[in-house]
Amino acid sequence: MADRWFVRCNASGIVTKGFTDDFEVPLPTDIEITNQAVGRAGRHFRMLLNDAEDRPMWKVVDGQLQQRSHAELEDAEYLQKMKRQAIRSTKDACNVAIAEDWDCIEMIGRCMLAIDKLLTKTGETAPAKYANMKTKIEPLTTARDTRIAAIKACTTLAELEALLNG
Questions:
Q1: Residue 136 lies in domain
Q2: Residues 47, 51, 53, 56: is their CA dihedral positive or negative?
Q3: What values do phi and psi take at 49, rounded to 5?
């Protein structure tokens, strides 16, 4: 219990955990932080390990703690996370647009599919109310699906940001 600070890394050398020996016994693979410039002082580990978006900010290279570069922070995993968030917000925006005209959101789309199948099997024509509902909803869902396809096609964070801000 000497108020020593340690970090634990994953196989890629990315810092995943920080602690002091006052509260946890370090493993042989843990690395002690001896650099006072990092702000190491006292019993409590106060160093921020992740940024606001919960991405690990530190790595260990040749036993030395280094801050990860901007390019390293915006890796493929982060891009996938941003795509998932963009798809979710696109779906939400579409649902809100539909909800402004209709009380049921996803239910209407599912009902439309069931009605289409039923009408196709029986050979009947759709009632006017159904045709009007379908006419209002289809452009919204088509726009949503087109935007989601564009989001999924993005290969860099810059492309995704341009699409979302454009």
A1: 76-165
A2: negative
A3: -100, -25
Residue 104, pLDDT score: 52
**What tokens does 13 get?**
């050398």
Distance CA 112, CA 119 (A): 10
Number of domains present in the structure of the chain: 2
Angle between helices 128-153 and 76-101 (to 10 degrees): 160
Query: Do 99 and 55 belong to one domain?
Result: no
User: Do 63 and 81 have their domain in common?
Assistant: no
What are the two backbone dihedrals, phi and then psi, of residue 86, each rounded to the nearest 5 degrees? -65, -40
Q: How confident is the model at residue 38 (pLDDT cuts 50, 70, 90)?
A: low
- In the predicted structure, residue 37 carries a pLDDT above the cut 50: no
CA 53 – CA 70 distance, rounded (Å): 13
pTM comes to 0.44
